[in-house]
Amino acid sequence: MAATIENPQKPDEAGLNDLVALVADGMKRVNSTILSRTGSDVAMIPEVANHLIASGGKRLRPILTLACAQLCGYVDEAGKDGDVKLAASVEFMHTATLLHDDVVDESDMRRGRVAARIKWGNEASVLVGDFLLGQAFRMMVEVGSLKALDILSAAATVIAEGEVMQLAAAKNLETSEDAYLAVIRGKTAELFAAACEVGPVIAQRSEAEQAAARSYGMNLGIAFQLIDDALDYGGTSTELGKNVGDDFREGKITLPIVLAYRRSDEEERGFWRRTLTRGEIRDDDLATALSILRRHGTLEETVARARHYGETAKAALDIFPAGPVRSALLDAVEFCVARAH
Amino acid sequence: MAATIENPQKPDEAGLNDLVALVADGMKRVNSTILSRTGSDVAMIPEVANHLIASGGKRLRPILTLACAQLCGYVDEAGKDGDVKLAASVEFMHTATLLHDDVVDESDMRRGRVAARIKWGNEASVLVGDFLLGQAFRMMVEVGSLKALDILSAAATVIAEGEVMQLAAAKNLETSEDAYLAVIRGKTAELFAAACEVGPVIAQRSEAEQAAARSYGMNLGIAFQLIDDALDYGGTSTELGKNVGDDFREGKITLPIVLAYRRSDEEERGFWRRTLTRGEIRDDDLATALSILRRHGTLEETVARARHYGETAKAALDIFPAGPVRSALLDAVEFCVARAH
């Protein structure tokens, strides 16, 4: 299918296509599971949940769960749909996080649509998020793997910790690169890691393979978030589903800023303090911010860091035998990193 | 210990004392488990969690879990602390709900203290709630009972559904008694039911006993909430830890209102529409509301409804052999209902 794609000289052309094709059957079942499990007699629940879920997104996380299970030769015994249910659980956990994040960030937009909290209120975002988390755990229980439950429930706490860390570090320009990495390991990469790790777990593969899949997911997740951070200062709003400069307007200290602040002169530091710490933002400040980031080359550097984590993710897959699934997972890394170009 | 307490002619004198004494050892371990499981390197998490958890409350839900396990002869094999961990999980689920409720209700006070969301912001309340939910599931996984996990994860979704139903019914004076009961079954009674049901489950007792414990908890929970509703128009703020009239000021349609609205004349209906639906509340409106409720006798009637559910709760325990634990559980019902006097 894709023998040439594993060649590192020819990255990111096929993008996610091979991976998507390999798990297409499973994703159909994931999508119908998502639809049926957002059902509720309480009409507002499917309304709010589907507003967000139906608005798309790549469903990268459930795809990773299915692919890692497939990579490890998971066989669905007696139609239990273990991989499908865990994949849907992972997507529900992700959606719950997005709903709660919107309340935390006071966001107006999400995935190019009005945020649920604007349309239905903070209340609905909080409660429908809670409902989806509950449904996620119910599906995991149905799968019946205590190890998978352990991994995903631990992930739920680590994600919340990462978000709280981000809150505590908010507007703090002294945030170090290490501290920032700890935040994104929690808030983003942990769910990628868990999504991948449960694949070998339900396929009952060795701890070494579980750890390898986890490492792939963790490093891919870090790369993914760093690229998102760079895109927030350079992507186009149609590509991203949100406007360029959101992080800037919200005073979020992301890696491009962490790196730039340390190299900034006194005048530039004054600019960062006024805009990001004090939140006094004028019309042309985003343009100024971009020019400072470009002057210090920190967007390129953020992408370079992402590439490093991407390489680590790819290396983690070395212990698995070559084949179309492994190739497609390697491609997925290239796809994530290449988004920044 | 308490042979006379089972005598229905002598209710509520001992209150919760017997129940508290019977589970005292377990509750010590529950409390230290709560303390250790709110620990996090992220300092804000224990701060926020303990602000609420340390402010007390009766810990009725974990007490019920321990008591129902004890009633069913649960033996802690190899120090796994199954009952203790499930009890702590139940309290974490409850605390998470309170944190998220404060955001939903925009509350300023909780248990007589400033609400966490006022002190740390909505963000912290949402995220620390999520952290506690994650920790609750981790503890359940450690206990290793898939049935208990199933019951408590289902409860998490039902609670969220109940809260969303309440949201959808908010300010709607046409809410029927049935619709209101559906709301409180979800938002309050379901966790009482689950807290009780997991006792016989981990003691590996029959389905009939699981169902009986669940019915006890469900009906006790309904009674508990109805009494809370009545207290909100009649308790004193020191007893309740929140001010009389909170529900009124928030436009909550509780049973005393549901019953009164149907009996109100046109002028009174106009009053309810202005205050509860439109939220235009003046200084002496709470006094007027109280006098309308008293005129229609709906506070007493709400307490009578609570007493009915309390009797159903007590009858559910008939299949268990008489003894100090069953006696104390019967007392607990009286205690809950008697709070309204």
Automatic annotation (TrEMBL), chains A, B:
Coiled-coil residue windows: none
Entry annotated with the keyword Metal-binding: yes
Q: What class of enzyme is it?
A: transferase
Q: Specify whether Cytoplasm is a keyword of the entry.
A: no
The cofactors required by this protein are: Mg(2+)
Enumerate the transmembrane spans: none
- This chain's protein is named Polyprenyl synthetase family protein
